[in-house]
Design a protein that fits this description.
Radius of gyration: 16 Å
Distance between the termini: 34 Å
CATH topology: Rossmann fold
CATH class: Alpha Beta
Number of domains: 1
Shape: globular
Helix content: 25-40%
Structural class: alpha/beta
CATH architecture: 3-Layer(aba) Sandwich
Largest sheet: 7 strands, mixed
Order of helices and strands: HHEHEHEHEHEHEE
Strand content: 25-35%
Length: 211
Amino acid sequence: MTGAWDTAYAEGGRPTWDIGRPQPAVVRLLAAGAFGPPGASILDAGCGTGENALLLAGHGHRVVGIDVAWEAIARARAKAAERAKAAERAIAPPPVFVVGDVLEALGAGTMGPFDVALDVGLLHSLGDGEGVRYAATLAAVVRPGGRAFVLCWSDRNPFGIGPRRVSRRALRGTFRASAGWRVDAIEPEELASRLPGRVVHAWLARLTRRG
């Protein structure tokens, strides 16, 4: 699986989800104070080339981004270094970018606890039957009372292009109480992408880690 994701970035390639800026939904969440005060610890699960993580770190949050693709993490680290050089100061605290499979890395128990988890486009890339395991693994690294925000492809999108569609019902079933979560809201959203001429419908799930 690791190789498949690296292939998307091979030879300077730029996959359609790598939009070169933070997701607008994440920008709005940040502006609304959803990630907490500066200094909050945030996990960016499936961080890609790091735009969302860099945005959050630039606002004083302590961010760890993890992605299975080596090339994506290499680009994220390069962006952090380039932007610090351009600003003539390091981002403080600097984001940490880690290569790893989220299910395995978080399950190892060496990361966290985090105040907030962010998932932009990871859940819908998981295989059948992995969702509940992922939700429980995520709950294990988010402190009780902490938050999670999951932005994923919606079943409102037409079939024939893109990843697995996710329904509201499936989201509620994945982030169930037995997996450690309370679903606060599931809202219609859009995922910005480089797909030509397409609006990508998404769901934004707002979750709270049960105590």
